[in-house]
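Tip: read the tokens left to right.
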């Protein structure tokens, strides 16, 4: 029989002789002097085990919910991360577009000064570069009389032919006369073109067409028909 204090309820346990002996042995092995204390400890251990089992059951039931909550939280954070990644990609695209636009603008700005420089060249500067300007080859928008008067004031040689006026750079004109009258000793056009160059040969043909110059086969020289053009 097992007797408990008056403050607790009394429990009576009936066991056979063998079980009783085993309980005494176990109680002694576990260090209990009273068999009743050993039996109480066994009961408490069983009750605690049941309580632990119930707690594990609770955790087992809560686990799916906790996992869902964690996954939902992860998904929210992943969505934020994906949005940030998309924004970064968009930002890179905008930077690339802006860079390309700036490069095109830079090229455009670099090209414009060159165009302006060409447009701003004066007529006399153009003549010094090209050496000869034929009236028939000038753009229609240029006022002829004013243009040739301007070139003449700036020191250019103006040849007044029957069909057109021709402006010649003064230095080139001296070079042209020297080659034509002093160096060329043939009427072979290929040789003349080679010595005078393309522009010089065009000027030569215009002068020859209007009989301002002629070739003397005996002297093997080109001569002017009038000194008025070659003062």
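Filled-in amino acids:
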């Amino acid at each position: 029989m097992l007797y408990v204090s008056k403050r607790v309820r009394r429990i009576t346990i009936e066991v056979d002789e063998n079980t009783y002996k085993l309980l005494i042995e176990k109680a002694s092995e576990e260090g209990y002097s009273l068999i009743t204390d050993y039996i109480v400890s066994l009961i408490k251990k069983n009750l605690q085990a049941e309580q632990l089992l119930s707690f594990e059951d609770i955790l087992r039931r809560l686990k799916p919910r906790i996992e869902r909550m964690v996954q939902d939280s992860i998904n929210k954070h992943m969505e934020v991360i994906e949005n940030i990644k998309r924004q970064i990609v968009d930002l890179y695209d905008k930077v690339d577009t802006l860079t390309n636009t700036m490069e095109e603008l830079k090229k455009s700005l670099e090209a414009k000064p060159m165009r302006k420089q060409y447009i701003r060249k004066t007529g006399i500067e153009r003549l010094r570069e090209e050496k000869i300007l034929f009236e028939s080859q000038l753009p229609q928008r240029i006022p002829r009389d004013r243009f040739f008067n301007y070139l003449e004031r700036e020191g250019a040689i103006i040849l007044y032919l029957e069909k057109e006026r021709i402006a010649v750079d003064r230095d080139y004109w001296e070079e042209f006369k020297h080659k034509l009258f002093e160096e060329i000793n043939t009427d072979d056009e290929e040789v003349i073109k080679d010595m005078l160059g393309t522009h010089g040969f065009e000027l030569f043909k215009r002068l020859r067409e209007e009989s301002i110059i002629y070739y003397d086969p005996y002297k093997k020289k080109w001569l002017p028909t009038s000194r008025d053009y070659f003062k």
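Residues 17-72 form one domain. The mean pLDDT is 82.
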